[in-house]
Amino acid sequence: MRLIITLTLVHLCIFGVAQQQEGDTTLLQEIVIEAFETDRPIDEVPASVGILREEQFQRFSNTSILPAVNTVPGVRMEERSPGSYRFSIRGSSLRAPFGVRNVKAYWNGLPFTDGGGNTYLNLLDFSSVGSIEIIKGPGASLYGAGTGGVLLLKSPEIKQDLIQASAVGGSFGLQRYMIGGQLKRQNVTANLQLARHKSEGYRDQTALERNAVNADVKFRTGNRGTLSSTIFFSDLFYETPGGLTRAQYDADPSQARPPSALLGAVEANAAVTNQTIYGGFVYDHDWNNLWATTVGVYAGHSGFENPTIRNYERRDETNFGMRTHTVFNLLRGQSSVGGRITFGGEYQYFVSPISVFDNDGVGNPGALQVEDKVISRAGLIFSQGDVELAPGMFVTAGASINFLHYGFMRVAPSPAINQDRDFNMVVSPRLAILKKFSETVSLFASYSDGFSPPSLAEVRPSTNTFSNTLKAEIGNNLELGARGQAANRRLGYDIVLYDFRLKNTIIVQRNAEGADYFVNAGRTSQRGIEALVDYEIARGDNKLLKIWASYAYQHYRFREYVVLDKNFSGNALTGIAPTIFSTGLDISAGKKLTTNLTFNYVDHIPLNDANTDFAEAYILFGMRAGWNSTIGRNNHLEIFAGIENAFDERYSLGNDLNAFGGRYYNAAMPRNFYAGLNLGLGPRH
Question: Which pTM was predicted?
Answer without folding.
Answer: 0.91
